[in-house]
Amino acid sequence: MLETITRISESQKICTATKDEPHLGKLQEDGLLCNLRPGEAKEEKEKDKGKGPTPDPSAEFGKKHALDVTTSNGKYVFSLKVNGSDKELFKTDATQKGLDDAEKELAKLVEEKQKDLETNLKVEFSTAGEDVIKQWIEKPDCTWERGPMVKARAPRLAELYGIEAALNKAQPSHLNKDGSKGLKFYFLTETYYKNDPALAYFIREDKDKRPAIYFDPNGTNNKPITEADAKRSGKNYLNSIEALTQHEIFHNAQHNMGWDKYDVKDRFARMIGWLPCEDPKTHETKWIFKGKKDDLYRREQDNCKDPIKWCACHSGGELVNDKGKEVDKVKDAQQFTRDAIQDLALVRPSTWYFVNPVEMFAEGGMKYRLNDETRAELLTESPKLYDAVKIHDQEEIDKYRGVDGQARSNFIRMPDGTLAKNSGENAKTVQEFEAKVKARAAEKEKQKAKQAEKK
Question: What is the pTM of this model?
Fold first, then answer.
């Protein structure tokens, strides 16, 4: 999510908050009457009514640190599901002392992983109790004010592995504009927007004037670490810490490549079917989405408390009803579901999150970089978005990694998302990958057309 304070009138947040509390089960009453005096049984039952079993301390430890904890031969075994397999971290005695020892062992692993990422990639992470930024609070009149200071916590090991996976395929987008520093990752203990939880935000400048990513308190909870782990566990598509981080890092790529300037944003927005218009009342830039048949759409609401709706509009942004007549209110305009807009779009969005060109482009960038499967899907489902992202990505790579004397890129992005030298062999690999994907897509369309003819 690209954080822009001026956009308060139009929420761009991915409004999802995961709550997956374990079922505690029924109170076990075997032996409850032992050693009770006559008449005390009912009183004791009432006192314990509604209580669950004593929590398993190892399970609580695992939940706290996002680890898997199992017991084998009198030992606790601590592991992570990462990169598509189970990674055993360490073992301790299956006792309370063993859990105390596990805290120390885990702290060492976190410190080692964090130091490795900070040293090799110039990134940084929040510390426990660190001041981050004052919380945004919406007032009854729909304006916003700053509230109390939001504090941060230190990262968990699972989060570091997920961020590492994203960083491995996001380079050089993890750097600031001059390449001197990397992003800073903050893990918030309170939501950035009060009573309005999201997953994460990209921030152009944190308190120390460096680009940053804020994770809301539940932003990474119950998420697989990488896309390989999401696929393995049957989780929802693009549901990993890796994918979430990759999206936010791509916002830094947009920042690095000048999306703060109107002409740069306008150039790439038009490539993917978006047109700007100015709100005559607020002079705020509104974005209009083009359909396949010269139809136009935009998102709007009559009041900040109302849900934002996709509506038909004219080229100046004026809302229209189903007869093409201009109307003043969203409630009177022709409205469409998000899924309908995705199908009607001239350039198909790669995911459900396309509230504006900035977010639609970042979602495309995420799929372009995650792995060869997501890149193939992007090329198949939205070739124009694929081409725009590829141009943007290569321009950023050239900015940081340079070109040779013939203006030929020194590095290119391979199908799996990693960077490689622009050798003849590597370039051929990318070309063959794209040709194969396009051929499969063409054959699929051919078969679809044949089936349509039969009907």
Answer: 0.86
